[in-house]
């Protein structure tokens, strides 16, 4: 049987921490692979904007958390968060914003084709920032993009994160010096001319996981291209915001999406 990208192959109910939100683990098709992800839908028949949640990390680091997905669904979105290939029973292997970007592209299509979804916004956290920008470049009809503590430059990640170099060399196939084209392929800064959607950048300036320099470079490039971009920098925070600030930021970025998309 032939499947289309973004087509749902299987959907299983998952316990939800909120009775108003229905959670499902979904298996969907992405370029010949069966990928898993988490879908959160407010109960009822009402139409909502779609929210593509692109996680950070790799493998078991930065896994999709149901409580986080439900948090965004409670702001009035139908949320889908792909686990990326090779994770939690999905086919294939993650390659850190290489071909696994196809998992995000197919997830965008999955949301577009939900009957109750009006338009689709893209959100990326940490490594998901690169995924969000690449997806928005691929789908110019995206309503808006938010990148929170997001990677924008894979060369810079290699330089800054000595602890990730071994993984990056293994997954990407070598160093940026040896294979610059592979790192360029994973760096959306080189293709921002193709971006149409408004962008909001959120970053803690004390972030040691993804330095704020990633966001500075992204904002500078977008402004040079006269793209629509806003930024919320938090001088006192790291990669992870305190719970109360985190909740308020979620509310604020959700409102921004709905008003700017």
From TrEMBL:
<keyword id="KW-0378">Hydrolase</keyword>
<dbReference type="InterPro" id="IPR029058">
    <property type="entry name" value="AB_hydrolase_fold"/>
</dbReference>
<dbReference type="Pfam" id="PF00326">
    <property type="entry name" value="Peptidase_S9"/>
</dbReference>
<protein>
    <submittedName>
        <fullName>Prolyl oligopeptidase family serine peptidase</fullName>
    </submittedName>
</protein>
<dbReference type="InterPro" id="IPR001375">
    <property type="entry name" value="Peptidase_S9_cat"/>
</dbReference>
<feature type="domain" description="Peptidase S9 prolyl oligopeptidase catalytic">
    <location>
        <begin position="68"/>
        <end position="259"/>
    </location>
</feature>
